[in-house]
Amino acid sequence: MRMKSFAIVAALTLSAAISGCSTIGSQIFSNDYGAVTDAGYQLPRIPIEKVPRQFHRQEVDYDTKEKPGTIIVDTQNKFLYFVEDDGRAIRYGIGVGREGFEWHGTAHVALKREWPTWTPPREMVKRQPELAKFANGMDPGLKNPLGARALYLFNKGGDMGYRLHGSPEWNSIGKAMSSGCIRLMNQDIIDLYDRAEVGAKVIVL
């Protein structure tokens, strides 16, 4: 009887793992990365099975004194948390600044843009002269480095030049590859964009 009960529990555990719907203490949204038509653009399906499971969007337990609506970026572990009520948060996998481009501090979301124009900073153009053709801005689109959405970060000194933004490069999630911006998969930045409000506090650890 004990063996039969153990077999049932094992089968249920395996079934939950295969379904990609939930884990202990969290709800995982692995099925939310399909193709999306948004503002006339056709975002392709993300091959989420190739992205490590910990970087799939999920609701998790999260202990913080920050109020709901706060965004906390854990650059070391490559997670972004959107704080909810009752000790919960939505967690997203992210890509962060590569060596020499890391930063930390507190900011706030000053602007939100759907399908933003990307203008490379002058310093970036100096490093990569081939980007000079975008000095007046790169039109929105599937190849635009800011992806489907961007949240613009400001502090007391004004525009920091950093963004929380989408990226067509889903395989960069979980890595340090950017010039300091925090990148998410396009389907994730759309979700975060709809949750976050202008004025939201952003803490980069």
UniProtKB/TrEMBL annotation:
Tell me which residues make up the L,D-TPase catalytic domain.
69-205
The protein's superkingdom reads: Bacteria
Give the residues annotated as active site: 165, 181
Q: Which CDD domains match?
A: YkuD_like (cd16913)
Q: What is its EC number?
A: 2.3.2.-
**Could you tell me the keywords of this UniProt record?**
Acyltransferase, Cell shape, Cell wall biogenesis/degradation, Glycosyltransferase, Hydrolase, Peptidoglycan synthesis, Signal, Transferase
Enzyme category, top tier: transferase
Looking up Gene3D superfamilies in the UniProt record yields: L,D-transpeptidase catalytic domain-like
Indicate the secretion signal residues: 1-19
Q: Which protein, by its recorded name, is this?
A: L,D-transpeptidase
